[in-house]
Amino acid sequence: MKNYVITIARGFGSGGKDIGMRLSEALGIPCYERQILTMASEKSGIDESVFVESDERLRGRYIANFMRKLPVSGIVEPYDKEFMSDVNVFNIQADIIQTLASTQSCIIVGKCADYLLKDRKNVISIYVEAPRDYCVKSIREKMHVSEQRANQLIHSTDKYRAKYYSYYTGGKDWTNPTNYDLVLNTARISREKCVELVKNYIDIRFGDF
């Protein structure tokens, strides 16, 4: 195995991105989240604002067809009327995620990466969550908002992330623990300890990489 990938799905306010950044520093490998939007824009020529607008959310009205499977490689050409569609924007990002998983060790936060890479042997998928009071406290400290606003942000963000995940995975539930290698509750152990736990799991899973 020439490289490994860690994917991180996370409830809003649970600290999943922060754990990703800490892992990046501890392991000496890059962590991709917002950067994937920039890479997708540069690859496609589509303005980055389009990728930002559809980042883990559905634009407009979509009814998920739970029986369909979207082709990861189904990128359309610029002259196609669907070039700016949500599905094409998703597929452009998916292609970048697949390329990263094939070429380098890295951490990928969100973007349905656990599902896109589920058949790869070199991937460890993690879900990070915490009770509401922990997430509210975390958001209030980071964003300097009221308790009411923090609760609103958690509700709305987790809702649109859930719809996005369900739409692009054929109806799967992003909180289902069977989707992941590890489920971490940051209210039970610190984020630093979460990093240590993941490092130990890498050793168990991949040996002396």
Number of DSSP-assigned strands: 5
Could you give a short account of the major beta sheet? 5 strands, parallel
State the helical fraction. Answer: 40-55%
Radius of gyration: 17 Å
| Number of helical stretches of at least 4 residues | 8
* Oligomeric grouping of the chains: single chain
Category by helix and strand content? alpha/beta
How large a portion of the residues is in β-strands, by DSSP E?
A: 5-15%
CATH topology: Rossmann fold
Alpha carbon gap, first and last residue: 8 Å
Report the CATH C-level class.
Alpha Beta
Unreliable spans are 62-73, 76-82
Q: What is the topology, as strand order, of the major beta sheet? A: 2-3-1-4-5
What is the annotated CATH architecture?
3-Layer(aba) Sandwich
CATH superfamily: P-loop containing nucleotide triphosphate hydrolases
Mean of residue pLDDT?
88
Morphology: globular
Count of folded domains: 1
Helix and strand succession?
Answer: EHEHHHEHEHHEH
InterPro entries: P-loop_NTPase
GO molecular function, one term: kinase activity
Keywords: Kinase, Transferase
Protein name: Cytidylate kinase
What is this structure, in a nutshell?
Helices cover 48% and strands 11% of the residues. The chain has helices at 16-27, 34-44, 48-53, 86-103, 113-116, 132-143, 147-168, 191-206, and strands spanning 5-10, 31-32, 106-109, 123-129, 182-185.
Describe the overall structure.
The protein has 209 residues and is an alpha/beta fold. The chain has a single domain, classed as Rossmann fold (3-Layer(aba) Sandwich), CATH 3.40.50. The protein has helices at 16-27, 34-44, 48-53, 86-103, 113-116, 132-143, 147-168, 191-206, and strands spanning 5-10, 31-32, 106-109, 123-129, 182-185. It has a five-stranded parallel beta sheet with strand order 2-3-1-4-5, sandwiched between helices. Helix 6 (132-143) packs across helix 7. The longest helix is centred in the last third of the chain and has 22 residues, at 147-168. The chain is globular, with a radius of gyration of 17 Å. 34% of the residues are buried. InterPro entries: P-loop_NTPase. GO terms for molecular function: kinase activity. It holds the Pfam family Cytidylate_kin2.
